[in-house]
Design brief:
By secondary structure, this protein is mainly alpha-helical. The protein contains four helices and two strands. Helix content is 45%, strand content 4%. A two-stranded antiparallel ribbon has the order 1-2.
Length: 96
C-alpha cells in the first residue's frame, strides 16, 4: 500500500457500508471494453449478427433485412489468412 492515508480512508468508507474501487482495476475494465470486437461492426453487421443469434436462416435474415436471399449467401472465410470476408448483405465470417 503506497499511501497509508488513502488506505485508511478506504477502510473507513467500507466499514460505513460504502464501496471502494481501485483505479487500476477500473482502467483495466475500461481498456477491455474499448477492445470489444463487436464495436468494430457496422450497424448493418450488428443487425445480421443479431438475426443470426436468433437462429434465423439466410432466407430469414434476407427477409428481415428486406433484401433478396441471393444477396445473403452463406459467409465464407478468407482461408488461412485470419481475416473475415463480408457478404453483400453485410454479415461477416471469422476465419477458422
Amino acid at each position: 500500500m503506497a499511501h497509508v492515508p488513502d488506505f485508511l480512508e478506504s477502510l473507513r468508507r467500507v466499514a460505513a457500508g460504502g464501496t471502494v474501487l481501485d483505479p487500476e482495476v477500473v482502467a483495466q475494465l475500461m481498456a477491455r471494453r474499448r477492445s470489444d470486437p463487436l464495436d468494430s461492426l457496422t450497424p448493418r453487421e450488428q443487425d445480421v449478427l443479431r438475426l443470426m443469434a436468433e437462429g434465423r436462416s439466410n432466407t430469414g435474415i434476407a427477409e428481415a433485412l428486406k433484401v433478396s436471399h441471393r444477396l445473403c449467401p452463406p459467409p465464407t472465410a478468407a482461408r488461412g489468412r485470419g481475416r473475415a470476408s463480408t457478404t453483400p448483405c453485410g454479415s461477416t465470417a471469422a476465419s477458422t
